[in-house]
Write a structure and sequence with these properties.
Shape: elongated
Number of helices: 5
Number of strands: 7
Radius of gyration: 19 Å
Largest sheet: 7 strands, antiparallel
Low-confidence stretches: none
Structural class: alpha+beta
Helix content: 25-40%
Order of helices and strands: HHHEEEEEEEHH
């Protein structure tokens, strides 16, 4: 009877350790996996995964770049920042050097734009591709510094997130 109990305890502990490792691996390597996953047109999973997992991923020491991971998670460079806002649903915000704020949803669709005087701007007058390129230029040094994981769990990451980025 004691052998059965000890074997059961051992199997449960190994299961907990395995699940914990997989979860930590997926979070700490989320940017790497997002760069290499299939995606729909206009989707930016590496930017979303970078912000969502900023506390977990490698934050390289890059001159002028700061990370704010207490509360909202932001990457700040001079007068620009890219981060998230928690409301009913997570939204992502990019504020440029002119203090114009652009809000995106999880699928990286532009939701609305607010100028420096807190007035709404017509999103049809905004070049979304230009804004996305600005955000990428801000985040790209961090994305480029993410290394390949020791144990590659890309297939698990794809199973979990592929529907989010179609």
């Amino acid at each position: 009877m004691k052998k059965i109990i000890w074997r059961t305890i051992l199997v449960v502990l190994l299961g907990i350790i395995l699940v914990g490792y997989v979860k930590i691996n997926l979070k700490s390597n989320a940017v790497y996996y997002a760069k290499n996953m299939p995606r729909g047109e206009g989707q930016e999973p590496e930017l979303i995964m970078l912000i969502d997992n900023l506390w977990w991923v490698y934050n390289p020491d890059i001159e002028g770049l700061k990370y704010d991971i207490d509360g909202t998670q932001d990457i700040v460079y001079e007068n620009k920042y890219f981060g998230n806002i928690y409301a009913d649903e997570t939204e992502y915000i990019y504020t440029d050097e002119n203090n114009i704020s652009y809000r995106f949803n999880h699928r990286f669709e532009l939701l609305h734009v607010i100028d420096e005087k807190y007035k709404k701007v017509d999103i049809n007058s905004v070049d979304k591709n230009k804004i996305v390129l600005e955000i990428k230029s801000l985040a790209q040094p961090v994305i480029d510094k993410q290394s390949e994981p020791l144990i590659n769990l890309q297939w698990i990451f794809n199973l979990v997130y592929q529907d989010d980025f179609k």
